Amino acid sequence: MATVPVYCICRLPYDVTQFMIECDACKDWFHGSCVEVDEDDAPDIDIYHCPNCEKTHGKSTSEDYSPFSFSVQNGSQVFIKELRSRTFPSAEDIVVKLSGSQLSLEYLEDSGFNDPILVQKKEGLGMSMPVPTFYISDVENYVGEKLSQTFRNKDVFLKHSFCSNLLLKLTSLM
């Protein structure tokens, strides 16, 4: 029989309806109500130590409030409030729109790949899109599992030579 993980000083399982905070020392999670941390105060906590870790690591510390210097539980009221208070650029402002003939290796070498690119018309692109059943395992077959794992597990900037070689291999399959 599988056991359900338990958290907090109350040793109860996770409950999506209750705010929780992670101890920066022991990495266990605690219900705010059990450790007297109000959800609205959590963003101001820089380093949180649970009651057990306070004994060896000292009290929790707070920092001046900055909306970009803290993390909160996804989906919590604080998270939703912060998300709603932020403004994001429009896709029209950040997406680069090109035709297939404009997107070339030379373009990528000159301009880089720092913003999302939308190819509006594939004519002139010089390649075909893979079939819908093309998966990462197919990429592993062509570039090798070790290289594929690198891209699965890390944020890596692709070099143009790798990109062009991969594109050549993929287009030769179509």
Automatic annotation (TrEMBL):
Q: Which residues cross the membrane?
A: none
Listed A to Z, the keywords are:
Chromatin regulator, Dioxygenase, Iron, Metal-binding, Nucleus, Oxidoreductase, Transcription, Transcription regulation, Zinc, Zinc-finger
SMART domains reported in the protein's UniProt record: PHD
Q: Does the keyword Zinc-finger apply?
A: yes
Say if the entry is tagged with keyword Zinc-finger.
yes
Q: Give GO terms for biological process.
A: brain development; chromatin organization
- Superkingdom of origin: Eukaryota
InterPro entries (UniProt xref)? JHDM1_Histone_Demethylase, Zinc_finger_PHD-type_CS, Znf_FYVE_PHD, Znf_PHD, Znf_PHD-finger
Primary localization class, coarse: nucleus
Location in the cell: Nucleus
GO MF annotations for this entry?
Answer: dioxygenase activity; zinc ion binding
PHD-type domain: residues covered: 5-56
Pfam families xref list: PHD
**May I have one GO cellular component term?**
nucleus
Family annotation (SUPFAM superfamilies): FYVE/PHD zinc finger (SSF57903)
Q: Which family does it belong to?
A: Belongs to the JHDM1 histone demethylase family. JHDM1D subfamily.
Which protein are we looking at?
Answer: PHD-type domain-containing protein
Q: Which organism is it from?
A: Gouania willdenowi
